[in-house]
Amino acid sequence: xxxxxxxxxxxxxxxxxxxxxxxxxxxxxxxxxxxxxxxxxxxxxxxxxxxxxxxxxxxxxxxxxxxxxxxxxxxxxxxxxxxxxxxxxxxxxxxxxxxxxxxxxxxxxxxxxxxxxxxxxxxxxxxxxxxxxxxxxxxxxxxxxxxxxxxxxxxxxxxxxxxxxxxxxxxxxxxxxxxxxxxxxxxxxxxxxxxxxxxxxxxxxxxxxxxxxxxxxxxxxxxxxxxxxxxxxxxxxxxxxxxxxxxxxxxxxxxxxxxxxxxxxxxxxxxxxxxxxxxxxxxxxxxxxxxxxxxxxxxxxxxxxxxxxxxxxxxxxxxxxxxxxxxxxxxxxxxxxxxxxxxxxxxxxxxxxxxxxxxxxxxxxxxxxxxxxxxxxxxxxxxxxxxxxxxxxxxxxxxxxxxxxxxxxxxxxxxxxxxxxx
Length: 422
Ligand SMILES: [Zn+2]
Hints:
Layout: H1 14-22, H2 29-36, H3 40-52, E1 56-61, E2 71-75, E3 81-87, E4 91-97, E5 103-110, H4 117-134, E6 142-149, H5 174-182, E7 186-190, H6 191-203, E8 210-215, E9 219-225, E10 228-229, H7 267-271, H8 273-282, H9 290-298, H10 302-326, E11 330-334, H11 342-355, H12 358-361, E12 365-368, H13 375-388, H14 391-397, E13 412-413
Parallel strand pairs: 3-6, 6-7, 7-13, 8-11, 11-12
Antiparallel strand pairs: 1-2, 3-4, 4-5, 8-9, 9-10
Helix pairs in contact: 1-3, 1-14, 2-3, 6-13, 9-10, 10-11
Bound molecules: zinc ion.
Residues 242, 259, 261, 263, 266, 268 line the site of zinc ion.
């Protein structure tokens, strides 16, 4: 079926039409005629194609302007499910969502990412099967799989490359693993990019310039510029945890803490959950995880509060540098340590507002994540939906050449960078 050469010579296939419904810009035939300039007969043809494929469904009837009320349509969010997993350093969260990213069922559990891909992904598969049963679905309804990891992934293949804390994952083909089970596209991204995407899309659409700082076991930064994720040339943008902290007030390297990456004095070596855990254990506190650290801070334990304030100031310096580079209107703090609230946030705010130029901070908001523990799975589901239902992907699925867009591999791998979190 050829759909090129329509009104105005524009290539407006079913995929482009579906996008108008997903963006809620169109609800009726009349909307489509007005928005696309296509002939009514062509619009009807596109709609029939989308209805037959189950991508679009009738949605009641809209108010009439006289005569027969025009039928309304909407994207069929229930036309399949997405399987999502956000893998952290010490635990993971799995969810089944509808095709609009609404969480239908979810479950989290402890998981040591250093146990390697087979152990961790088998755990994920087990949860996926349980969750599919919970929502009354089956593997053949799965339209896509979204995975976020606390490590670097090769852009073209979705393979994890030399991850500092993901022992045994080097070169592992995550999309291949899921393709063998579900035969559908798999999107792989870095954890903080997924969180940034979810947070901005869900709560902050009026803030197209945003930084998402994840303070979990490690520290990372997701950068949204002009409403889109900024990944950099290799996907390594935003590696905030391993830039050096220069405010230690000493030139003596021996007094600066050793980082997991092998360097000394990194931001993460002061402010990451693992660093706070290390410092508190050295002070004699019998604790074992980032959640224990948060518990001590919230309980007002003086050592923990002092270290959290210091971590906030270290993060504040790094964020202030990032604010000077990107001039965001919003900085969102997420990850487990965000639950430390005031001691951490006070340190961050104090330094960012003091160090950054007045113009950069005049309208700058610094806040904690609203999606909280769901930021990763929500962001992945929304990102996956955008890829699966991109106009060219839909046209390809329907066997229609719209003449636009790239051909997309069935494996979707979005390049992330090395960051870590729990
Ligand atoms: Zn480091």
